[in-house]
Amino acid sequence: MATKKEKVVDLKPKASKVTEEELKNLQEVVSNINNLQSEIGRVEAQKHGYLHQLAVVRDKATLLQGDLEKTYGTANVNINDGSIQYPEDGESRN
């Protein structure tokens, strides 16, 4: 014989809103997420600017190395005292 399942009816009314405290906590968490995402965007934009500046400075260094090689036959210069360090074989590219 098959048993018939009884349908359970929930008599408690369903809430239409969260509590004020839950809403406040939810708003605070969402606000923190938004602030952090905004800050990450700001930092990434700053990083992009720094990377661009670095590329410009590296281009200047490459040009300067070329000038030093034309003038001295090498770009191997001690940046502390300005001394030129020629290749050990004594040959320069001039």
Description of the molecule:
By secondary structure, this protein is mainly α. It has a domain at 30-88. Helix content is 56%, strand content 0%. It is built from one helix and no strands. It has one helix at residues 20-72. It is rod-shaped and about 100 Å long. The chain starts with 19 loop residues before the first helix and ends in a 22-residue tail after the last helix.
Oligomer classification: single chain
Query: How would you describe the shape?
Result: rod-shaped
Biggest sheet character: none
Helical content (DSSP H or I, runs of 4+) = 55-70%
Low-confidence stretches: none
Write the layout of secondary structure elements.
Blueprint: H1 20-72
In brief, what are we looking at here?
With 94 residues, this protein is mostly helical. It is built from 1 helix and no strands.
Which features characterize this protein?
single chain; 94 residues; mainly alpha; 1 helix; 0% strand
